[in-house]
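Box 4.2: Ligand-aware structure prediction
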Amino acid sequence: MSFHQFGLSPDLLRAVERQAYTVPTPVQRETIPLVLAGRDVLAGAQTGTGKTAAFVLPILQRLHTTRGVGHPDGRRPIRVLVLAPTRELALQVEESVRVYGADRPIRSTAIYGGVGFDQQVRRLRQGPDVVVATPGRLLDHVGQRTIDLSRIEVLVLDEADRMLDMGFIRDIRRILALLPVERQTLLFSATFSNEIRALASDFLRDPAQVQVARRNTAAELVRQVVFPVDRERKRELLSRLIRSGRIEQALVFTRTKHGANRLAEQLGRDGIRATAIHGNKSQGQRVKALEDFKRGRADILVATDIAARGLDIDALPHVVNFELPMVAEDYVHRIGRTGRAGSDGDAISLVCVDERPLLAAIERLLGHPVATEVIDGFEPDPRVRPEPIRRRSDQRPMQHANAGRPNQAGRTGNGARAGVPGRPDAAWRPGPAGRSYGHRPSGPFRAGAPDHRQRTAPARVSRP
Ligand code: AMP
């Protein structure tokens, strides 16, 4: 199938050609005709599937073929609203609008917090056709009456699950109440919780459903390996892997903002070009960090899950989990950053004894164990006992993983009860044979080693 079959206008096809896209991705194949037909769409698709073009292209086409309802006073109305969870995603979606709409007189702007309000007001006064916004700042503009949402024809909720995770549900409902009832609504979400379904049934009209391959199917194409290492020696191991060339350009994940900063600084002291990106940084700092990384001025970009969500970085050779995420699904999101579009990718996890329950939950979600490789000189000390994971140094111990929280397969990821079928849940095993990595299980990570989980303090669940 080619893009020509959608009946898109020549200028949009030229834009697609300039991007060198030859065939539509699955989510584009399914979604574009539905949007062109004016349907509401509920789409299960994650970042990396090409979902942005799947809604931007047909929306631009529709803006072209239908005429917006102008204001009585002649002002140009905002015709399309895209809600996105983070400013990075908002910026990227807006950039896509500009890229695909380059050959037509479409005006767009991104509205997000953490930057000056007045400049956004000026841009809104210029009469954008498309506004891409994070919910909080959008409501600030509503409150100040600097935006008029009464002429919206198309609403897109992008990464709806993440918006809900970030606590935006009330903001989203408030925004929805301000929009015309007669509109087209597209909802994109990686997962479908009951909350997402409730949102869809309240605000979408007879939606067509689109589901493309889950990221954890794609994730199987990524070479995954776990390097067991002592808690205190992770940074040293990471530096070694970078200096030896085993890791080239990599997106490195930490659990906390503080951890991201500290790691970037420590790597810098090791002579490695590293930069950090997270929610506490100013917008300017975040954009610069991303630019430095994309242009190869930094080899390592250290990020937290929320900051990395939606970042558009192509063909990343390596993703490194400096710390495993507390929620197994985030691992799948993280490693989905590599191995895109058929390119090879490695996902490397540095795992200390404290994180074994997290790894077990990830393996349950993947449905298979992850290969393990012990690096010479970094064999874990068998005397080290697991400690509860803390989110911040000033915080009470953090509980692990998905206990009690339904995962994608609808199971409860609750510790030992839900093991990978056919394998004992208790021991740290070497990964499957036949991978490109050698397996030298040793120390406390040896097959059959006692399960430290039993000794880890049980705790209640919350999300980082
Ligand atoms: P998204 O899921 O929208 O974040 O897109 C992920 C990446 O896929 C972006 O870098 C897009 O430029 C790229 N992309 C989108 N559509 C296609 C396509 N049809 N062929 C190749 N790459 C694409």
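In the box above, the bound molecule is adenosine monophosphate. Residues 21, 24-25, 28, 47-53, 312, 314, 341 surround adenosine monophosphate (CB under 6 Å).
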